[in-house]
What does this fold into?
Amino acid sequence: NGNPLLTDLTGLENLTYIGSDLWINKNDSMASLDGLENVSVIGGSLSLAINDALSSLSGLSGLTSIGGLLYLSSNTDLTSLYGLDAIDPASIEHLIIRQNDLLSVCHVQSICEYLADPGGPDHGDGLSGLQVQLQILQHADDGSAAAKRLAQTAHGHKFRRRGLGRGGCGDAGR
It folds into this structure.
């Protein structure tokens, strides 16, 4: 956390498993997550926050499972969630995506499935699928079937919808 000279994670290519949380926060020069392509499992939460130059998550393309929170916040240059495609939606316990101003539409199957599943895992608060902690940015309905399910789920569970930037959860196959 907080290394202004770190531009990527090259050198970690042999890393395949992280047993606990992975927090990559406050790295002003980090433009990519290159070096993490072979990580398939994060045993805890994944936090990517306040990485001003981070424009791509493609370095996480091998990630299939996380065991906690997926938190994406205040990554001012992030334009896409591609790279999170292979994550099993059932492995995401909580999801918070907020204040990523250039992130306009979610076209990533794993995230869209998580968001659209009204029968997802119960988290002890009586709510399933989306949770109160989930903060989907303001204009979530782009007309797609996934966005409509998302809106119905959010309405049915009284979730706050604060969007994915200016877009929403679109058809992952687009």
In short: The longest strand covers residues 69-73. The longest helix spans residues 145-156. Confidence is low (pLDDT under 50) at residues 121-142, 150-174.
